[in-house]
Design a protein that fits this description.
It is a single chain. The chain is mainly alpha-helical and about 230 residues long. It has a two-stranded antiparallel ribbon with strand order 1-2. Helix 4 (about 65-100) packs across helix 7 (about 125-135), helix 4 packs across helix 8 and helix 10 (about 170-185) packs across helix 12 (about 195-205). It contains 13 helices and two strands; from the N terminus they run ααββααααααααααα. It has helices at about 1-5, 20-25, 45-55, 65-100, 105, 115-120, 125-135, 140-145, 150-160, 170-185, 190-195, 195-205, 220-230, and strands at about 35-40, 40-45. The protein binds glutathione.
Length: about 230
């Protein structure tokens, strides 16, 4: 969104878990990232950041001027934030807990302040805690996987309706595409997504999403995805 607005920025990446304390120590009210300091203001939360950027720099817009279309974009944006981020986060931590080796690939380009090799070597407890904090239990992750086809159907329908992936990218595109991009780094999930319009949105907004993880999910959990990828539009 910063690049869309042409706002120069300095990026800092934080270790999961420790990020909570760092963000608090930096004076933000909550414990989550993304968090942004801009013009002396501290803005936290992806949706709040979109609105503050729109206020500070209206062009190019992140929200359509037409009120009806804006309401639809805001609905899609809220859905992405509240319904899509969490299940994909749960699947991600669960998968990395089974096999931590792919972690290095996710750290590509990260500005952590210490060497990536060292960060990766000390990652096991961070992964375990992140899985726990995100309630990434077997049961929840199985449910999260099963929810993916309906999620993708919604995104594809919004794309078909011109709410997402239109000529001008909007706040909902920037909200949803990174979650899709993360999901597509998992070889378990990629086949269910890659031939759908949703994949086109992800690749447009985040052409080089770092990370790649080989399959680790039990075959039975992936069953709901098999019928989804077979029936998805090509
Ligand atoms: N949905 C919110 C929060 C995002 C969120 O939960 N971020 C995670 C990292 S992906 C986080 O900071 N977790 C730390 C915590 O919940 O304590 C947003 O889009 O800004």
């Amino acid at each position: 969104m910063l690049e869309h607005k042409g706002v120069a920025y300095k990026r800092t990446d934080l270790f999961p878990v420790a990020s909570k304390a760092v963000v608090r120590a930096a004076g933000f009210p909550g414990v989550t990232v993304p968090a942004l300091k801009i013009d002396g203001a501290k803005v936290q939360g992806s949706r709040q950041i979109a609105r503050e950027l729109e206020r500070l720099r209206p062009e190019p817009p992140l929200f359509p001027a037409d009120p009806e279309l804006r309401a639809k974009v805001e609905e899609a944006e809220r859905y992405g934030d509240e319904q899509m981020q969490h299940p994909i986060r749960q699947i991600s931590w669960w998968s990395l807990k089974q096999d931590g080796k792919p972690l290095r690939s996710y750290s590509e380009g990260a500005k952590l302040g210490i060497p990536i090799g060292l960060a990766v070597k000390t990652a096991a407890p961070v992964i375990a805690l992140s899985a726990r904090f995100n309630q990434a239990s077997d049961e929840n992750v199985r449910a999260a996987v099963a929810a993916i086809p309906a999620m993708l159907d919604r995104v594809d329908a919004w794309i078909a309706a011109g709410v997402l992936n239109g000529e001008q990218l909007n706040a909902a595109d920037f909200q949803i595409a990174p979650t899709l991009g993360l999901a597509m780094t998992f070889d378990d999930l990629l086949p269910a997504i890659e031939n759908r319009p949703a994949a086109g949105l992800a690749r447009r907004v985040v052409p080089h999403y770092p990370g790649k993880a080989p399959p680790v999910l039990p075959a039975a959990w992936l069953e709901p995805l098999r019928s989804s990828s077979a029936s998805s539009p090509r």
